[in-house]
Amino acid sequence: MKILVTGAAGFIGFHVSCKLTDLGHEVIGLDNINDYYDVNLKYARLGVLGIDKEDASKEGMLTTSTKKTKFSFVKMDLSDRDKLSELFKQEKFDVVCNLAAQAGVRYSLENPEAYVDSNIVGFLNILEGCRHNKVKHLVYASSSSVYGLNKKIPFETTDAVDHPVSLYAASKKSNELMAHTYSHLYGFATTGLRFFTVYGPWGRPDMAMFLFTKAILNGDSIKVFNHGKLERDFTYIDDITEGVVRIIEADVSERKNKNQLYKLYNIGNNSSVKLLDFIEEIEKSLGIKAKRNNLPMQPGDVEKTWANVDDLIKDYDYRPNTPIREGVKKFIDWYKQFYHPEKAIS
Questions:
Q1: Which residues form the NAD-dependent epimerase/dehydratase domain (predicted)?
Q2: How far apart are CA 27 and CA 86, in angstroms?
Q3: β-bridge mates for residue 292, sequence order
């Protein structure tokens, strides 16, 4: 298939692009490479995919990989309606996997406009591209943050999600509503995936795994919010990628007959891990005890997340199987290889 992966220089988008090309699909990756976090990490991911930094920096230029013949990259912003529309017309995608978004719960308190531009306007432009170019299936990233103040554990997609506590969460809930409307009106399949705390090699520097590891290695204290009384459904990147790719490759032709064009799933580890246990695994893997700065709950955060993934298991035989100890070690091995912290210490 020919597949558009947006957010291809991002954490999940990079891994999904690698997996799809390894399976023989033709992938066009799209990313605006914004500076929400270190762009050098984004360029390094693209380098693994065979895209030179200089080429990746050129706006709107479709560049073919030097390492993976079935991967091409274009630097483009989803909010640029005209350029995105032209890309859809030229390439005639079979499937679109929209993983691009302005990420981060806490940053949405500082820069709300970025979330509207990327997550609302950008997503509308993706839907319009699918509508006008006969895309069979749109797979898109939602988020566990849509559950907001939901107290029932584990979270299920049938739960009411009417009380988001961040603009990021509200933007993701909006995506789900918009996708439902387009599936209903225009007859193409949409599948939303509510991601739960993804971690692993090439991860985002603003997430706990990255922040904790960097601080501990530097001898700095780590910020432990709500005095550590938090739990998260930490999910290793390979388990996430496997689930996303299974959905992308699935035949959706029967969904219209079953009146199931719109689908929504949780995608997580199917268990909840205490934050303090997560920190302990990082300490064990590094062989260093963390200095902890206990802080109150942050605005926009929730105390506990836990995904019920029964529907994903039933429909796609999705089986997350990476233990937290193994996943943490793989991340730290990558971090040391990529950043060489021992050189900084010496």
A1: 3-268
A2: 17
A3: 222
Rounded Cα distance, 121 and 141, in Å: 15
Of 118, 51, 50, 49, nearest to 84 by C-alpha is 118
Task: Please report whether residue 210 resides in a domain.
Answer: no
Please check the confidence at residue 344 and state whether its pLDDT lies above 50: no
Report the pLDDT value the prediction gives residue 343, as an integer from 0 to 100.
55
Whole-prediction pTM? 0.93
User: Helix or strand or coil: residue 113?
Assistant: helix
Judged against a pLDDT cut of 50, whether residue 246 lies above it is answered with yes
Asked, for residue 207, whether it belongs to a domain, the answer is no
Q: Is the dihedral of CA 240, 245, 248, 251 positive or negative?
A: negative
Q: Is 182 a catalytic residue?
A: no
CA 53 – CA 4 distance, rounded (Å): 20
Q: What is the CATH number of the domain that holds 123?
A: 3.40.50.720
- Give 14-52 pLDDT, tens digit per residue: 999 999 999 999 999 999 999 989 999 999 999 999 999
Of the listed 168, 199, 262, 265, which one is catalytic?
Answer: 168
